[in-house]
Amino acid sequence: MDSTSRDTVIAVRELNLSGLGEQQQTWVNEHTVYTHGYGVVNAYGNTVATRGYPSFWEGHPSQGDLGKYEPRIYFGQSSPSYSIVGGKDNGSPRELDYPDDESKTGQVNTTFAGNGGPSVSNPFNRLLYAAKFREANILFSQEVREGSQILYDRDPAKRVAKVAPWLTLDNSPYPAVVDHDDNPATPKRVMWIVDGYTTTNNYPYAQHESLAKATATADNKGRTSAGAGEINYVRNSVKAVVDAYDGSVKLYQWDDKDPILKAWQKVFPGTVTPMSQMSADLIAHMRYPEDLFNVQRTMMATYHVNDAAEFYSGGDFWKIPDDPTTPGQDQQAPYYLTLKMPGQDQASFSLSSAYIIGGNTNRNVLTGFLAVDSETSPGTGKKGERSPSYGKLRLLELPRSSNVAGPGQVQNIFDSNPEISKELNLLSQEGSQVIKGNLLTLPVGGGLLYVQPVYVQSSSGTQYPLLRKVLVSFGDNVGFADTLSGRSTRSSAVTPGRPRVRRPSTAMPLRPMTPMRRPTVRTRRRMAEPRHRRARAPRPRLQPARPPRPRPARPPVPPPPRRPREPRIRGGADQALSDAQTAMTDADTARSKGDWSGYGDARSASTKPSSGPLRPRRAG
Length: 620
Fold this sequence. Notes:
Blueprint: E1 8-12, H1 27-33, E2 37-38, E3 40-48, E4 54-59, E5 63-64, E6 69-70, E7 72-73, E8 82-86, E9 95-99, E10 107-110, H2 123-132, H3 137-140, E11 148-152, H4 156-163, E12 168-169, E13 174-178, E14 188-200, E15 209-210, H5 211-214, E16 230-231, E17 233-243, E18 249-253, H6 259-267, E19 272-273, H7 280-284, H8 290-303, H9 308-313, E20 318-319, E21 335-339, E22 348-357, E23 366-373, E24 393-397, H10 407-416, H11 418-427, E25 432-436, E26 440-444, E27 447-458, E28 466-474, E29 477-481, H12 521-528, H13 573-592, H14 596-604, E30 615-618
Parallel strand pairs: 6-14, 18-19
Antiparallel strand pairs: 1-3, 2-7, 3-4, 4-5, 8-11, 9-10, 12-14, 13-14, 14-17, 15-16, 17-18, 20-22, 21-22, 22-23, 23-24, 24-30, 25-27, 26-27, 27-28, 28-29
Helix pairs in contact: 13-14
């Protein structure tokens, strides 16, 4: 937005025909009135509004920072199987946009004006599609008018698969509001972006891997696209774009050195558009594909070992941890975050994942952290230019002697902590349901910071999750608060008063927030002294003091024994973030001077989140 990056969560407002009442579920309503969704909803990805609500910056109907764009979604992942749209409406459009009290009819209607499907004006085409969809109303209904079109095969991935069956498609199409021609005078369009791969299983001397197994995560239960199977070669050579209004598909060349893509271009000339024709805004909305990263992290778990003897023994193999927030043994999905890895000058949009010890052991000990640069825009605003750092893999390898808790151990620490358990039990009382969010692993100050949001929603009826707590772990310190930047107390009770609204930032470098002030060393020491040892100032007297009477000597009274303190949680969220701040500042200072020995000493002088410094290692 305005030449700046903004962490965003986006959703398309699509149709849900099951929400219609029983008497409204007619053929006319389902296929000629409720034909399309309307607009998108955007929220900040790094801030929260009052009472745990998302902080929206684009709402309905199409009001916000996106400006003017075509909001109608005729092609999406939840569109009806088919709809009959367009044609002569005689000044009375019937396709519903959205309800509106200011309208005479109580709603805003429209008529499709694009070229998204075959015509059903003539009786022959009506007969064909009536037979295809087994529906007589297509043949006889008066709602099928002159110039009407029938829209079907409306899922973006399905349309790309029909246009380019020789591509293997990513399982996660995503929407974006894009200036497709770099012309501010024309409205933007809602585009579906689908990553396409060229694959083969016949590359010489290469490891074979099941694409379905490598891409199966807790968020993706082993779904496979067309052409998915066992492969030993994969490249993200094509970016496919589907217009959400008219369903048009355009393939862009993303890898101009792929020999398999060049061969397909000779078979189907003119089907793939060079990347030089992509608008700067469209390139800026691309990202590193999730399925490709899943395959790469699976291979890196084994092939980070470059010694033949160690590779044969397999003692240093890693594995991807299971998602601790879901039942079963599903791999933890990678996460898109704006973070700063060691060696980077500034934070960038990245896709990251963690590693733990391999084998069949139950030890959930962290061994590595992998991130890939997903930032596509070079910031020049020029057509067809891509960031040179896009796709660079960075691997942080922990010392083999370290014993840093992995995601599973950290989740167990959160669940078993008495104060956290007490608070979550209060939140999950009758009528409420606690939802544990993604457990994020973040490199901070030479250590690793774990952050997990906790949401609460109604257990029945209208369910809408709201952010209530954020759990934090850094080294041996564990804490929680209402927000990551909020002040926490040892009891972690909700602070009364007006909740704080965090303003968004253009980027989200992983630097801890300033913790609450703590008492000075002298004050803490004085508070810890026994009462009988504290010196008291003499009280002033109005009359001269009389000489003291002699008293018999008494044996000294020993001080009362100290009462053992109850074990309690160390620090809290403020302590964890304070240690992270100290470690990061010292480590950055040493690294900027090129003092790598001092870098390790600075990290170990903090709260010691690991038994040795992370070793940056270039993975690609």
